[in-house]
Structures are given as C-alpha cells and as structure tokens.
Design a protein that fits this description.
heterodimer; A: 79 residues; alpha+beta; Ubiquitin-like (UB roll); 5-stranded mixed sheet; B: 376 residues; alpha/beta; Rossmann fold; Oxidized Rhodanese, domain 1; 2 domains; 8-stranded mixed sheet; 5-stranded parallel sheet; 34% helix; sulfotransferase activity (chain B); EC 2.7.7.80 (chain B); Rhodanese-like_dom_sf (chain B); molybdopterin-synthase adenylyltransferase activity (chain B)
Chain lengths: 79, 376
C-alpha cells in the first residue's frame, strides 16, 4: 500500500523533503510510525506526535487506505 | 458610540455581519497579548486599530537589532528600549481611546492566573514551548478563549482554543500536542530562523480570529489547525477533535492547577535544582584559568559577541559531547541562560554531573561586566 507523507517543521528536516511517497506493509497509523522510525531513526524523537490523515487528526489505531495523505505537524514555538 | 467612533470605524460597521453591534462588542472587550514580538506586532496593531477597549501587553524583553527584520512595530532608534513600553507608546498614537496595560514581565506559573483573569480573551504570540503549554492550561482553568499562532522558517500555525460553542469549550493545545518532543526538536526563531514577513501573515490571521471570537461572528478555527507554508504557498486545515485522554479537559483530568512547565518541556518532572554560576563567578574562574567554557549558541551569534568559550551549538551538544570534559569545572553559556540549561539537561542524560549554567548568559555579562560587548 502506498501513502503520501507530508511533513512540516522538523519532521520535514528528518524526512529530507516535504512530500514522500511511502510504500508500507502495515495497516494502522502506529505501523506507519514504526516504519518511519526504522527508515529515519531521528523520527523516534517525534514519537509522541499525533498524525493527521487527509483532513483529520486521528488516533494510532486508525486504519490507513491506499493514497491517503498523512500529515506530520510537529509543534513549533516561534513568535 | 461617539461621532468620532462612528467615523473611525465606519469601514467595518457598514459590513452587515459586523455592524455597530460588532463595534460595541469590541469597544467593551479586553484582550491580553502575550509577546510583543514578531506575531505581537500585527496582533497589537490590528486589535488597537479595530477598537478593542483594553489591551494588555506582556513582554519582558528589549528591542534588539535582530528583531527588526520581522518585528515591524519597532524601529532602529528604539534598540535597547522596552518592547512593552514602546508598543504602548506607538499604539496609543494609533488609537488614543484604547486603554493599555503594560506588563513588563515574563509570564510564569506563579503570575499567569492573575495576569489572564481580568481579560476576555488571550492571544499567544510567545516564543517558547513552555509558555505555550502554560498559557493553554491557564486559559483552560480560567475558561478564557485563546488564539494560538506559531511560526518556524516559512511555516505558520493558527488555531482557536477553548472557545465557547453551543455551551461547550472547544479543543485546546493539549489535544493537538499531548506531549512535548525533546527541546532540540522545537527550535526557536533564533535557532531555526524565520522569514520576516511570516509573522505578519500569521499574526494578522490571529487578530482576525480574535475579533471574530469577541463579536461571535462567522466560523472560527476552533477545533481546527490551520497551517500555511509560504515556501510553496500551500495551506492545510485539519480537524482537531477533543481527546478523551487530554489531561486538562479529558475524561479523567490530572492537571487541575498550573505545573512546572520548564520541567515538563524538558521531559523531567523532578525538581531541577541546578547549579548556576553568576557572571562575576565566571569572571573569577576565567581569571584563575580553571574552567572550561562551552558556548551553545549558533555560529552567527558567536561572531557577534563571545567570551572565548568553545562553540558547540545546542543541536550539536550530544553528537559532539566528547569535546566536553566529564570532570573539572565546566560552565555552559548561551545568550540568556535558557539554551545552556537545555544543553545541560541533555548532557545529564549522558551522565554529566559537573556542568554549571551561566545565569543570564552573555547578556548578563554585557549588563554587569562588559558594556562594550555587542548586543543583538
């Protein structure tokens, strides 16, 4: 299954680009998180980040569909 | 409304959705703006121009030259002046009918409740994560709506927290970011950078949401996070549901009063009783030659002014920790003492026990020992 990951802030730095197509074998958001940590070990530091899928923030047990857009938005503090 | 008010606000009172009724609401309302910086500049200017009755300005800082690229309320002649006081002066000239309360202090867990309580709404333009959690929690505990905005490089986030809708309070910051990531994952403007126009865009959106919440007009960003990326001009608006696990507003609240937010954001709950040295103690140690000084600021800051310490920027202290002695006197410094504390907390996880923080950083050295040092 293929999903598009769109990353902001530090997540964009860790993934090296804003949008990445990710081919993955799991089903849930938690599986995708584990796969991202394996591919990009520094992503472990953002392990607590909530994922949004398409237009909604979801929980870790959310089941992804092919071609979903997964959006990663870490907190930023600048003002 | 006076005749002058009718003229002054005529361009907005002729809008059907706003009208004189909307203006009357703004004139009778009060807003606390936290941070008179990049976001604070447009927030304060537009809220003042719109006719908010009373505005509180919270900022402990002074205008420095690196602010001017984005903090367009200030000019080059005002370097070194109080941001809160200078803001009040400028804004009073813009709208003499607005009352201003100058709060020249850092908001913290001790003063936050008293500061926020007298206002109808809070707008958070602060610049660090601990303050963001603090303001969120205090607004929840006091039932105040909170306009949130934050910026990083080309990206800005906006939301409305804790707004009353259909008798229920909307989601808050902890529904979005339940747990803070490690400090090095949340860079400030001085560490990560920010394009100067971005706070203008995001701050103006925050002011617009504040006006809508006060006038109960239109549909706000309550329950949504808006994110804007100026680099590719893309926007996302994401639905943020209230979480049952939210420690403030969830089913089983565990936070019923303000906590230690610095410790919370450092990922430690225990008391952070931490050895500090003053600039005078450091001066003595440097004269004796028995101290290693580690400077965790960025390269460009070091070039502006330094005390001859070894430069290891905060985001490199872990990867370059072999350059930091594990015994003997080691003092860690930055601009004001915040980042060096973070560096020490990070290094503690590697077993360091000999690190001391320079209280007040190089700015304290400048204030108390060497006024010739370049400020920035």
């Amino acid at each position: 299954m293929k999903v598009t990951v769109t990353a902001f802030g530090i997540a964009k730095d860790i993934l090296n680009k804003k949008q990445t197509e990710v081919e993955y074998s799991g089903t849930t958001v938690a599986d995708l998180r584990q796969q991202l940590i394996q591919e990009f070990p520094e992503f472990a530091k953002l392990a607590s980040l909530k994922f949004a899928v398409n237009t909604d923030y979801v929980n870790d047990d959310f089941v992804l569909n092919s071609n979903d857009e997964v959006v990663l938005i870490p907190p930023v503090s600048g003002g | 409304m006076t005749k002058e008010d009718q003229l002054r606000y005529s361009r907005q009172t002729i809008i059907p959705e706003f009208g004189e009724a909307g203006q009357e609401k703004l004139l009778a309302s009060s807003v606390l703006v936290i941070g008179a910086g990049g976001l604070g500049a447009p927030i304060l200017q537009y809220l003042t121009a719109a006719g908010i009755g009373r505005i509180g300005i919270v900022d402990f800082d002074e205008v420095s030259i690196s602010n001017l690229q984005r903090q367009v309320l200030f000019n080059t002649h005002e370097l070194g002046k109080s941001k809160a006081q200078t803001s009040k002066q400028k804004l009073s000239a813009l709208n003499p009918a607005t009352e201003f309360d100058v709060h020249e202090l850092a908001i913290n867990a001790t003063n936050a409740m008293d500061l926020i309580e007298p206002y109808d709404l809070v707008v958070d333009g602060s610049d660090n994560l601990a303050t963001r959690y603090l303001v969120n929690d205090a607004c929840f505990l006091l039932n105040k709506p909170l306009i949130y905005g934050a910026i990083f490089r080309f990206e800005g986030q906006v939301s409305v927290f804790n707004a009353l809708e259909n008798g229920k309070r909307g989601p808050n910051y902890r529904d979005l970011f339940p747990t803070p990531p490690p400090p090095e994952m949340v860079p400030s403007c001085s560490e990560g950078g920010v394009i100067g126009v971005l706070p203008g865009i995001i701050g103006a959106m925050m002011a617009s949401e504040a006006i809508k919440v006060l006038c109960q007009m239109g549909t706000t960003l309550s329950g949504k996070l808006f994110i804007f990326d100026a680099l590719d001009f893309s926007t996302h608006t994401l639905n943020v549901p209230a979480s049952a696990d939210n420690p403030l507003s969830g089913k089983h609240p565990s936070i019923t009063e303000l906590i230690d937010y610095e410790a919370f954001c450092m990922g430690q709950v225990e008391d952070k009783a931490q050895a500090e040295v003053t600039v005078h103690q450091l001066q003595h140690m440097l004269e004796e030659g028995n101290v290693t000084l580690i400077d965790v600021r960025e390269d460009y800051e070091y070039e502006i002014a330094n005390l001859g310490g070894e430069l290891i920027p905060l985001n490199k202290v872990l990867s370059r920790s072999e350059e930091i002695p594990t015994d003997g006197n080691v003092v860690v410094m930055c601009k004001m003492g915040g980042r060096s504390q973070k560096a020490i907390d990070l290094l503690k996880s590697k077993g360091y026990k000999n690190l001391k923080n320079l209280k007040g950083g190089i700015m304290a050295w400048r204030a108390e020992i060497d006024p010739e040092l370049q400020s920035y």
